[in-house]
Amino acid sequence: MAMAVETIAARAVNAVKVYGEGEAAVTALRGVSLDIERGHFAAIMGPSGSGKSTLLHCLAGLDTLTSGQVFIGDSELSALSDTELTIMRREKVGFVFQAFNLIPTLTAQENIVLPMTIGGRKPDAGWLETVIETLGLGDRLTHRPSELSGGQQQRVAAARALASKPEIVFADEPSGNLDSNSGRELLTFLQQAVAVFGQTIVMVTHDPIAASYSERVVFLADGNVAGELDAPSADAILDRMKYLER
Amino acid sequence: MIRASLRSLRAHAGQLVLTLVSIALGVSFVVGTLIYTATTSRAFEGLFDDAFAGIDINVQPEIDLELVFNPSDIARLDDDTLAALASTPGVATAWGLVENVAQLATADGQPLSPSGPPPFAFNWPGDDLPVALEIVEGRSPAEDGEVAIDQTSFEEGGLSLGDQVAVFAPGGREEFTVVGVTNFAGLPRLAGSNVTLTTATAQRLFDAEGQYTRLSATIEQGADLESVLREARLRLGEGVDVVSGQTAAEQGAQEITDALGFLNTFLLIFAGVSVFVATFIIYNTFRILISRRTRELSLLRAIGATSQQVTRATVLESLVVGAIASVLGVFLGLGLAIGLRAVLEAIGVELPSTTLVVNPSAIATGLVLGMVVTVASALIPILKVRQITPMEGLRDFGGAPGRRPLLWRLIFSALLFLLGGGFLVAGLAGTIELGWLSPVLLVGIGAVLALLGVISISPALVPGVMSFLGAPFVALSKSTGLLAQRNAVRSPRRTAATAAAALICVALMTLASVFVASLLGVIDEALDRGFRADLVVNPAGFAGGSQGFPPAVGDAIEALPETEIVGRQRFGQARVDGDVVFVGAVSDNEFDLVILERQEGTLTDLGDSGFVTDFSTAAENGWSVGQAVPFDFLLGSTELELRGLFEATGLSGIIVGVGSFERWVPNTLDIQVDIKFRDGIDLAAGRAEVEAIVAEYPSLQVSDQSELRERSREQTLQALGFIFGLLGLAVGVAFIGLANTTVLSTIERTREIGLLRAVGLERKGLRRMIYLESTMIAAFGAVLGVVAGIGLARALLTALEDEGFTVFVIPWPGLLALVVVISVLGLAAAVIPAWRAGRSNILEAIAYE
């Protein structure tokens, strides 16, 4: 926790999230504190109901905390208006969701540059080419999502997440809907993005194999951080998960 | 299964509200018109019952009602007939009535007759007789020079007993002293103003010494009405119609109701348009709801519900929606009937007061119409869902809907359009007699088919037209513009169905606009090229044309030394060669004022023995110059010789001499006087002379050619405004349809909207995207509507070319404005859906279950 701010891409401090009110209130996060280091590939794991998706949403500025703080870079999200938050997501955050990542009416190319088009920015042509080439999407750019396979769609989503060189990319079960081959390809690519381009990625998953692609796994249980593993193997993760789910 | 469908109905209730409203609006227009119609005829029945109260026998000249054109087209009975009626055994008292048309003004020229309904003149047959007129103040006229006038005129003119008023009869202007105030059967006035004179004065004024337009009689106590009637018929002989007072009241009410029938037909046409537009909205809503529920329906089928059960469930759902909407529509219709009456009263169609007649048939029509339209519109998408196997449906969105090949669609649309055009032209030309298929119905069927033709091709046009329409928006905003444009073309059928409502409205508005612009073009051209008159005298106001004015006006102008040619025009109806047609009558010199493009024979000096017509009318009827053609006028039949043929811009039809009208038509009023001054006469000075004469007649106006042009423009634009107003309700329905589709499609795209927000689209941008999408769809409908409308107008005016419509004018600026207005309405329709979409929770949208 003593790391210099410049090396932290995202940070949660005592994050609490309560859904609903009164007797129906459900506490999803019970005071989570977490630093995501810049240039690292982190995974958040936990059994269902552990609050891992809620944490991701709050970190990404898609949802607001009940109390506590979340930072992207050095900006504190609760201080931002809806418009500022939106612009922050557009400029500093990339997303890969489990499914329905793409706008069906836009081509792959248009989907990839969408955040920049919305922001009225010109994409960095060289970088864009690198990303597209790395993901092997060169011959798919004019296709609509409905004309792409599930794996190709997720790769387009990954390209979109990276194209604007965001501070941080959040991936929510990115391989959850893919067959094992496509899943492996995608995860390998994410791994490369961190290793080669220095991208910061946070991935939520419940799949130990997927998590094993990361450099660090943070475990969540009942809205609390329940330990972490560095450079984990799938087996080690599985053991820890079995323990948590017990 | 019933419970399942009711539950799903409740779950979708919010999304059906707008559909419900659109059906209800359509139904309300129909019900409102029907109730208004029923109320009108009941009101007139009541009026005529009162008017004939106490009268046992009514005698009128037997006339051919088909040939009646002017309110003063009334034949006469003489003193001998009255004497014969009076001496019939069983008759107690018999008296004669003189009824005609005459305008009324204060002595200083303030007109008291409203423009529109005819102003009537009556005689006062005697104080103790059961007449419809009743003196409510003062006394009845007792000698020449005295008049009783209606209460409304009396009050509006700020008159008191003893004041002078001016009455305008065929003989000219004459002043009278007001001695009494009348009501007619309990009404302050009948139609326009009412003047009541002594019998002798009335006869003198209408050039009918010893003549009457109607006879009334009472019978002796204890006499048998039927046998008295029989005896009277024997004694009065041929040519008169002897009926009981009650029958006369019924006939009178019927005649008026028939005469107002055009108004009801007119209103029903526009009500039909609203229902037609609503149909597309219902169809579209159910299509969207059903496609979204394809999974649900497929699941029901997968777990064993038969496809019939699924169909039944959805039909039930549409029935419930249709029923609620229809009931709502009926209530709205009641309100509309009241409103309609207020509006029509405001523009001068005043009716006897009566309570609203809520006739069961109007309500039944509304209910059945609403239900049938709803269920039928819902059935098409349901039947399509049935073709999908349960597994296809379960997989996802139902896949791409089966598309008819473009070529087939094109052929199908073209056939519909041509067939529709054919019906339209046939109906307008009135050339085809198909039994119960009236021309109005033919025109209606034609327009519906032609529009359906355009609508059925429109999905194929969506991508092309949208890339063109969307271009400025895309240029304006690369992100939201592009997204909006892509959304608009995403489902061409849905876009087309949504736009169809706007398309229909705009097509009809365009049709009306092009028609009016061309009409104005024809008038302009006729004035430019076809007409030599310096000044024209005619009645002011839109409905003024049917109210003539005394020939004394023309006589006085003719007597002016400044005038060279003073032509007269009259208008009426006659049966020519077996067909009832409008017939114009002109003075012997009128054609000296017309600039002809082509001529055969002679056109002037028609007297009472000749007629002329345009070349194409002659060709259609197979007439040639010198041929004698049979004419039936109201007062008799004759043969007129075809003296000449003409071709002139803006002039067509059958034209006889004023002499024929003098002999065979009871109405002796002019409708227009055309004046040409002698060479060298100063126009302004000549005009001053004419105006001095016309000044006595408050309803008349003097116009030179540019004023005439301006007035005709004002009047036709007024009529166009009226049509636009009536189409307003249909536009409202289309507006609701747009809002409805936008709401449904944003709900449907919740996930996509969430994604856009997640990757950085601000609320503002999201809303802009939805506005633009709706705007583009509306603009698409408007553009296609303009094209369709121009096409229909082209067909219509081609059919009317023989009637003088030789000019085809497309009012581009107006049509452009129409497209812009409809597009802005499209934007407005998206305001609430866009607001809703902007508020939606991103997480809900992207959460994956």
What would you note in describing this structure?
The complex is a heterodimer of chains A (246) and B (849). By secondary structure, chain A is of the alpha/beta class. In chain A, 36% of the residues lie in helices and 26% in strands. Chain A is built from nine helices and ten strands. A six-stranded mixed sheet of chain A has the order 6-7-8-3-9-10, with helices on both faces. A four-stranded antiparallel sheet of chain A has the order 2-1-4-5, covered by helices on one side. Chain A is globular, with a radius of gyration of 18 Å. Chain B is an alpha+beta fold. Helices cover 57% and strands 17% of the residues of chain B. Chain B has 25 helices and 24 strands. In chain B, the strands form four sheets. In chain B, strands 4, 5, 6, 7, 8, 9, 10 and 11 form an eight-stranded mixed sheet that branches. Chain B has a six-stranded mixed barrel with strand order 16-17-22-19-21-20. In chain B, helix 15 runs antiparallel to helix 23 (812-829) and helix 22 (763-799) packs antiparallel against helix 24 (831-839). The longest helix of chain B is centred in the N-terminal third of the chain and has 50 residues, at 2-51. The two termini of chain B are 27 Å apart. Residues 395-402 of chain B have low confidence and may be disordered. Classes of the chains: A alpha/beta (246), B alpha+beta (849). At the A-B interface, helix 2 and helix 4 of A face helix 14, helix 21, helix 22 and helix 25 of B.
Short overview:
The complex is a heterodimer of chains A (246) and B (849). Chain A has 246 residues and is α/β, with parallel strands linked by helices. Chain A has helices at residues 52-59, 82-92, 108-112, 114-119, 125-134, 150-163, 180-197, 208-211, 234-245; strands at 8-19, 26-37, 41-45, 67-72, 75-76, 93-96, 168-172, 201-204, 216-221, 224-230.
